[in-house]
Amino acid sequence: MNKSHPLLIVIGGCVLLGSVATGLGYWLTGGGPQSFRSDIVVHNSDGSPDSPPQASSPESASATDNTGAGPDAGPPPRSAIPDNEFGALVRKGEQIFADPGQYAGQYVGNDLRCQSCHFDAGRYDKTAPMRAAWPMYPAYRSKNQHVNDFAERLQGCFTYSMNGKAPPRGSDILQALEAYSFWLAKGTTVGESLPSKGFPDIGKPQQAPSYERGQAVFQANCALCHGADGQGQQAADGGYGFPPLWGKHSYNWGAGMHKVETAARFIKAAMPLGNPALTEQQAWDVAFFVNSHERPQDPRFDGSVQGTAKQFHHHDYARYGQSVDGQVLGSQAPPSATVP
Amino acid sequence: MTRIPLLAGLLILSSAALAETADTAQSLAQPCAACHGQKGQGGMGAYPHLAGLGETYLKRQLDAFASGQRDNPIMKPMASGLSDAQRATLARYFSKQSPAAPGSNPPADNGAGAELVRHGRWQDDIPACVQCHGPDARGIGKDFPGLAGQPAGYLQDQLKAWRNGKRQGDPQGLMSAVAKRLDDADLAAVADYLASLSAAPGQEGQP
């Protein structure tokens, strides 16, 4: 990284492009009150509420795709990026995705990167790959209650997950990210939801998520990389290390990842990195714990935490506006949109 | 008034304590130089450099050599002959040394190794090395050691040991889990590429 955004990798963080199409939105921006059960693959284009980030169970995801043509082949290899002007834009999109602090720094307000949550620069099929998002837009999103095209969806990532500002429509940054996503989606069917969309469903928790259990899970499994204080670590030379999970350098109260279920799905699928072995219940508990900490304000803040909570935070186990250790979450939030 | 002499006295005392610690560390480190180079900077064939690696990591390795958890016939007697405090002193000492200056060789041009190191192979659930070992493979924090510039043979041996269980004790079993997903060709390619990178910041050898 070497630039203004030191850490970034994080976990939750990023979320930038989430499940891409619908899912995208979801996790980044915290959708509205819809349910995310996901045995159903819904999409948004029919005017229904946001579809779940993940449209089908992991089992079905690995076994079939929606076309009945067998497993999804996945995105093309990096080596297939063409050597022409289009390929140059695709490469630029991948660079932004991997290091937005450097390549889109004026729109990034925290220490996360898109690939903090969307692993392998948005390619990994268990972390809301861009391949599954791109074909699903335009789509209705309950989050902002209108039909969003893909560019607007990407803007939401910057506003919420990156705690930054939306790059202008038509800007080279959005065009590069759109080109990159389009290229990753090669071979998919427009309007057909891939099983990999969003983060894999983990059902509902057997027990209501617990802060105390989550804290224990965190200390045993997460603190090694993200620090006992959740603030992540920088690499030896100041480059990206492990991303901060809460506080002013992490995603804000409007990001999809602030929702306990979205974070739990991501954690179950991907954490600890390289050896994801938590149970579903542990994932719920630790997601609840992580999201029970203060983080940058919801960009939709209306001047009152309770008012903002009432409007935008009805999802299951919502933490914003709730009291933790006598302090109301959201009441001490650092500012949103803290771009350089 | 009395504060100044008192403060001066404390400074003298603490300087003396620091000097003594440095002497102790340097003398403790003398035997290490034969294999690990002056100040642990390596350059001694297949033996790893120690300079600049994380303190917690180094201490854990010395403990593991002493206990036999990390099986090594050379290091076992060396580490066993040290007290716990001496092992801690050595770990701190080597963690504070600077790695050798970068060489002039460019990174190895092997596509497979570079790809695994920089991007991983996520279709097989293999993360990129740089995700835990830093974007330049020079380490993160006290637990994740730098790999850049370590001898290829050493790296390959360690990866094999993680894979077959001869090396254990990695926090949360993270390295063992990843190594088990790598085949022999992967190990060789990754080791060659990491060995070609520079352990110290500089123009060359950056991934």
Overall description:
Chain B: It is found in: Periplasm. Chain B: One of its GO terms (molecular function) is heme binding. Chain B: Keywords: Electron transport, Heme, Iron, Metal-binding, Periplasm, Signal, Transport. Chain B: Its main location: periplasm. The complex is a heterodimer of chains A (340) and B (207). Chain A is an all-alpha fold and 340 residues long. Chain A is built from 14 helices and four strands. In chain A, strand 1 and strand 2 form a beta hairpin. The N terminus of chain A is likely disordered. Helix content of chain B is 53%, strand content 0%. Chain B has ten helices and no strands. In chain B, helix 6 crosses helix 10. Chains A and B meet through helix 6 of A and helix 9 of B.
Give a short synopsis of this structure.
Chain A is mostly helical and 340 residues long.
Could you name the key traits of this structure?
heterodimer, A: 340 residues, mainly alpha, Cytochrome Bc1 Complex, Chain D, domain 2, 14 helices, disordered N terminus, B: 207 residues, 10 helices, globular, disordered C terminus, Cytochrome_c-type_DH (chain A)
The percent range for strand residues of chain A is: under 5%
Name the assembly state: heterodimer
Chain-averaged pLDDT of chain B:
86
**So, the CATH homologous superfamily of the largest domain in chain A?**
Cytochrome c-like domain
Give the termini separation of chain A. Answer: 15 Å
Shape of chain A: globular
Strand order of the largest sheet of chain A: 1-2
CATH-assigned fold name of the largest domain in chain A: Cytochrome Bc1 Complex, Chain D, domain 2
CATH superfamily of the largest domain in chain B: Cytochrome c-like domain
Terminus-to-terminus distance of chain B: 58 Å
Q: Which sequence of SSEs, written as H and E, runs from N to C of chain A?
A: HHHHHHHEEHHHHHHHEE
Shape of chain B: globular
The chain-level mean pLDDT of chain A equals 85
Total domain count of chain A? 3
List how many beta strands of chain B DSSP finds.
0
Helical proportion of chain A, percent range: 25-40%
What's the CATH C level of the largest domain in chain A? Mainly Alpha
Major β-sheet annotation of chain A:
2 strands, antiparallel
Ranges of chain B where pLDDT stays below 50 over 5 or more residues in a row are 203-207
Order of helices and strands of chain B: HHHHHHHHHH
